[in-house]
Write a structure and sequence with these properties.
The protein is mostly helical. It contains 19 helices and no strands.
Length: 405
């Protein structure tokens, strides 16, 4: 029998631009681990995020709508998957590392508490005396400390590039001396947080993930808002950018149903925004001529960006969504209830930590201490919408309490 040569496989095989992050030159992990021939460091990071408990729980967390309000609305899990698709597509065109871009897109919302921004505001207010709360920093806390899956370390032991991209999802955190004092507690609590170079912009793949997030949530909020009936096609067509998209669909597809028209218009808008990012980013790359990912970090502005003209077109869209969707009275009622649920759970736990689950209670050192508050914060931030609602019902109503026995 003749022998056959083994298929040569390299996890690093990808045509990359000179300014892309190179997995072969990754800066390493907190706990050193040997490389593998099957996956690059960024592929391993992505896989660890996908298999994490915090990532799975995103299926029960929503942004504008509460999870139990309906099965159609996007959860943070489906949103993250859609962000990852957009990020990977942009990264591929630009010659960036697709795995790192996708990894950061998948991870970017893992630190969000239940009930979207209302839940975050309520938790931040409750935690103000104890160091505050920030969902990006909470994501770092999850991947560096809270995930307890591996025998050799706490957290997921991700690469420097992934940690940096999570920390700087919204740009540099330190602009001038003294900004260190205002960093989120969860970030400052990490070992050697200074090594993340918080005074610079993130690498190019992280910048792609951040823009992909903008593209996804703008368009998906339009889609969910229309399908929920909180806003109408007639209303959105008062926004020039949306009027252009819907008018184009009507011209191309005569007699199209409203359901399909919404899908086609949102699809066109995503394509338009992606094209704008690509055109503007290519222009900035030509202007700055970066020779490495580090060159991009050290620029005085992001290299991956929307054009100024698009940002002007986007302003009426953002205002419309804020005035007509995010501040719709039904959403206000829902978010008001959600905010009270988070606040009341926190107040109850901080005043009486003995009612926490046994494992958490053992980590506390008395009522109203910073250590106990952080345990409670981690507990609430990890809840899904439905779990928080059920927990509140059990703890605040006799019927809810008795139904558990």
């Amino acid at each position: 029998m003749s022998s056959k040569s083994k298929l040569q496989f390299s996890p690093y095989r990808q045509t990359r631009a000179i300014f892309a992050s190179d997995p072969a030159q990754a800066r390493g992990r907190r706990i050193s681990q040997p490389s593998t021939s099957e996956r690059s460091p960024f592929q391993r990071d992505k896989d660890r995020i996908i298999h994490s408990s915090a990532f799975r729980r995103l299926k029960g967390k929503t942004q504008v709508f509460v999870a139990h309000e309906g099965d159609y609305y996007r959860t943070r899990l489906t949103h993250s998957l859609e962000v990852a698709q957009i990020a990977r597509s942009i990264a591929r065109v630009l010659g960036l590392d697709e795995d790192l871009a996708e990894c950061l897109a998948l991870a970017h919302d893992m630190g969000h508490p239940p009930f979207g921004h209302s839940g975050e505001h309520a938790l931040a207010e409750a935690m103000e005396p104890y160091g505050g709360f920030d969902h990006n920093a909470q994501t770092l806390r999850i991947v560096e400390h809270l995930e307890g899956r591996y025998a050799e370390f706490d957290g997921l032991n991700l690469t420097w590039e992934t940690l940096e991209g999570i920390a700087k999802h919204n740009g540099p955190l330190i602009v001038k001396d003294g900004d260190e004092d205002n960093l989120p507690w969860a970030l400052k609590a990490l070992d050697n947080w200074q090594r993340l170079e918080l005074e610079t912009f993130a690498g190019p793949e992280a910048q792609v993930a951040a823009l992909a997030d903008d593209i996804a949530y703008n368009n998906h909020d339009i889609d969910d808002g229309l399908r929920s009936g909180l806003i109408t096609v007639e209303e959105v067509e008062q926004v020039p950018l949306l009027n252009e998209a819907f008018s184009s669909v009507r011209r191309r597809f005569l007699g199209i149903s409203e359901d399909r028209m919404i899908h086609e218009a949102v699809r066109d808008l995503i394509g338009y925004m992606v094209s704008d990012v690509l055109e503007e980013t290519r222009s900035r790359l030509t202007e700055h001529d970066p020779q490495s990912a580090q060159d991009i970090r050290e620029l005085d502005r992001p290299v991956v960006a929307f054009s100024d003209s698009f940002r002007e077109k986007e302003k009426p869209l953002r205002k419309f969504l804020f005035d007509n969707l995010y501040r719709h009275y039904k959403v206000n009622r829902m978010m008001g209830q959600a905010s009270r649920t988070v606040s009341e759970l926190f107040d109850l736990f901080i005043n009486d930590p003995d009612i926490l689950p046994t494992e958490l209670r053992r980590q506390c050192n008395g009522a109203h201490t910073a250590e106990t508050a952080r345990v409670i914060c981690d507990h609430i931030a990890g809840m899904t919408d439905s779990f928080a609602i059920a927990e509140h019902r059990k703890l605040f109503t006799a019927a809810g309490y008795l139904s558990t026995y």
